[in-house]
Structure formats: C-alpha cells, structure tokens
Design brief:
By secondary structure, the chain is an alpha+beta fold. Helix 5 packs antiparallel against helix 11. The strands form seven sheets. A five-stranded mixed sheet has the order 2-11-8-9-5. A five-stranded mixed sheet has the order 3-6-4-10-7, with no helix packed on it. It is built from eleven helices and 24 strands. The relative contact order is 0.12.
Length: 406
C-alpha cells in the first residue's frame, strides 16, 4: 500500500443500513404524484452511475416500514447484481434488496472516489470471498461493514478520480464503437431474413403454419416429470431455460429415467425437430441437432415440418422479423405473454419450392456463420475492454496508477 494511505473498515468510514419493505407492498403503492419514490432494482441501469427517478411511488403510511434515502447516498444491490453501486440523484425509499451507505460525521471519502472503489475488483473480491459458502449470495450490513478500503488523502483521491475519468472516457468510447459494430452485424442478418421471408415472388406460396407443420405439446398428465423425478443421468428433459440462440444448451440439462420417459404419452422429440417456447421466454426456439431423443416441459411445443417445408427453412423463419412481429401481436403486451400451439398454427409463412428453400438455407447458413464469427470477435473485444477497466481500477486502489500531480 502506498505511503500516506490508510486502511479502514468500510463500516468505520460510512454508516451502512438495510432497506425495508412494507407488506403487502400493493397496499402502499400509489399513483399520487406527491407520493414517495419507491426505488427498485429495475430503476437502476447496468450502465448508469446514478438513479434519477423511479417507476413507482408509495404513500406516507409505508414510510415507517421502510428506509428513506437522500440524494448523494450510495446504494448497493445485495442480491441480483451482487454488490453493484449507484449514487442517488433523488430521494426515496428502499426495500430490503438494497443497502444504503451514508456519510457519517467525518468526510474522508470523495464521492466519485468511493464510487470507483466500490466498482473495483479490490472490493468485489472481498464481497465474493466473504459471501462464499452462502446458499444465497446476499450482502448484509455486517459483511459490507467488514470490508477493508484504502483511503488516500482527499487531494490524492481527486487526482485518482480525474485520472480514472480520463482513462474510462477513452475505454467507453472504444466500447461504444465495438457495440455499434456488433449491432450492425446483427442487423445485417436480420435485414436479410426480413428480405427473404417478406417475399411473395413467382413460385412462392403463403400458408398458415398449421397447414405445413405438425405440433406436439408436452405431456401434462400424471406422469409429467416433476423436479423430484429428475435423475443425474438418463433421458434429457428440456424446458425453456435450456434454449439459447437457436440451440439446446446441454450443460445444465435435466434428466428423467427411461421408465418415466416410457410413461409419457406425448412430447418426445428426436433429431430434426424444432422446439418453440410458448410461455415465459416466449419465442425462444431451438433445433434438435445433437440429442438423439428427449422430452419437453409443458412450456414448449415440438414443431415438425411436413413435406412442403425443410426444417432449416422453418428454423430461420422463427428468427425473422416477420415471425417476431406476429409473436408480439399475439402476446398483446401482457405481463406474462403466452401462446398456445393453436395460436402458433395461425402464423403466416411464405415459402418457395423445396429446391429454392435449400438454396436459401445454404445462403443463410453462410451469412449466419460470418455473422457469428464477427459477433464472437466483437464480444472478445468487449470482454477485453471490461478486463482493461478492472485492471485500471485494481492499479488505482493498490497505489500503482501513475498520477499526474500537476
């Protein structure tokens, strides 16, 4: 540690308290514009340093059952985005998913210095170590209070903040350019899909999915595999959480016994089938290309093509803006959107003869491969920039960052 720096417990430098939730919360939520801001995790953006406003308010009756925070206070998320700090730019009340850090009687920390410090690996590694072994990784007052922080003199804190601001401005500019390139790559592929599936050229026909596909729901009867029936090895049992980017993620699959599988009357898939999510993560889909067999949860439906379509053509259709728009229209903006297989069967699809479908799929396969390669490269650049930020922060709070004293 650099000469002239102190080490203190965070609880000695700041007053730390936990939020509270009036229950039942619905009783206290109000539309009154003069209500008190009710600060939720959703009011904080991952990319933002501050919380400016809230989506909900509570009435004054709930005030004695929660905790009031003021502009300038620090909030720490103690569960979801574990240890993520925010600075309040408004007043309001916090529930028990937040910890608040307030200045005590001594001003020994510059606010921006503390923000960078709380964002740093120096602090997160202590949070992570102290919370290790817990069933649920939550922060609490005792844990946060015990974290050790380096405290340089205030004028040096300000110089460190100025240096970090300068470094991160350059990093953030580079990140914005990479993110723009990443979005452009994704939009190029979506544009191609839109162009293909909005065609109605010579030889193309338009039908309902139900006319060219068959649908098979999962078995919802007494033999439905509950969590208690899962085994460590056996027949894959796939739910919505196992679908990602058009594939089934096999690392975290659930399994059922052969006996349980045999008792199922429907919902059994094989290679070439497409799984489509009807509830929760509505619209997620995946092609079965490596699992020889398995069964689906009730949130999914198996979609099989008939002789007029090839399955890879249907696979790309499910990713097209045409299909996504129909999903949104059927979902109707509800809080828990869902479809039935009968609804999916009403979707319109345009398609050419089989030979042209094969040529279209080959073209899309090549473009998809190029897009995935670009996305992978851009993601690696983003990861490298994140690591650079962590490295700069680590140096800053171990006294290794070169600071211009002029």
């Amino acid at each position: 540690m650099k000469q002239g720096w102190e080490i203190k417990k965070l609880g000695d430098a700041m007053h730390i308290a936990r939020g509270g939730s009036p229950r039942p919360i619905k009783k206290y939520i109000t539309d009154d514009p003069n209500g008190i801001n009710w600060i939720k995790i959703g009011d904080a953006s991952d990319s933002s340093k501050y919380i400016y406003k809230t989506k909900q308010k509570i009435n004054k009756d709930g005030l004695h059952k929660t905790r009031f925070v003021e502009e300038g206070d620090f909030l720490l998320s103690n569960s979801m985005s574990f240890g993520r700090p925010y600075i309040m730019k408004t007043n309001g009340c916090i529930h028990d998913g937040w910890l608040v850090l307030k200045e005590n009687n001594t001003t020994i920390l510059d606010k921006d210095f503390l923000y960078y410090l709380l964002c740093s690996p120096y602090i997160f590694e202590q949070f992570d170590s102290l919370a290790a072994g817990s069933t649920v990784r939550n922060l609490n007052i005792s844990l946060v209070s015990s974290v050790e922080i380096p405290i340089p003199p205030l004028d040096e804190q300000k110089r460190i903040v100025a240096k970090l601001d300068e470094c991160f401005e350059a990093v953030d500019k580079a990140r914005a350019n990479v993110e723009k390139n990443l979005n452009n790559a994704k939009e190029l592929f979506q544009s191609q899909l839109n162009q293909i599936f909005s065609q109605k050229g010579d030889g193309w026909v338009e039908k309902k999915l139900g006319e060219v596909c068959e649908f098979e729901n999962g078995d919802r009867g007494k033999n439905y595999p509950s969590r208690s029936k899962f085994v460590s090895e056996g027949i894959p049992f796939v739910n919505a959480g196992h679908l990602d980017n058009g594939k089934v993620i096999i690392e975290n699959l659930n399994y059922i016994t052969q006996e349980n599988y045999n008792l199922l009357s429907r919902g059994k898939f094989s290679i070439g089938d497409i799984l489509f999510c009807l509830r929760g993560s509505l619209g997620k889909y995946a092609m079965i290309d490596s699992l020889e067999r398995g069964a689906i949860a009730s949130s999914l439906v198996i979609v099989r093509v008939t002789k007029e379509l090839i399955n890879n053509f249907l696979f790309y259709y499910f990713d097209s803006p045409i299909c996504i728009k129909m999903i949104e229209e059927y979902a109707g903006g509800t809080a828990q959107p869902n479809l039935g297989a009968k609804d999916l069967a009403k979707f319109n699809i345009s398609y050419p003869p089989l030979d042209e479908q094969k040529r279209t799929v080959a073209k899309l396969d090549a473009l998809y491969s190029q897009t995935q390669s670009l996305e992978s490269n851009y993601q690696q650049e983003l990861d490298a920039l994140d690591e650079l930020k962590k490295s700069i922060l680590q140096k800053a709070f171990s006294g290794e960052l070169t600071i211009d004293n002029g």
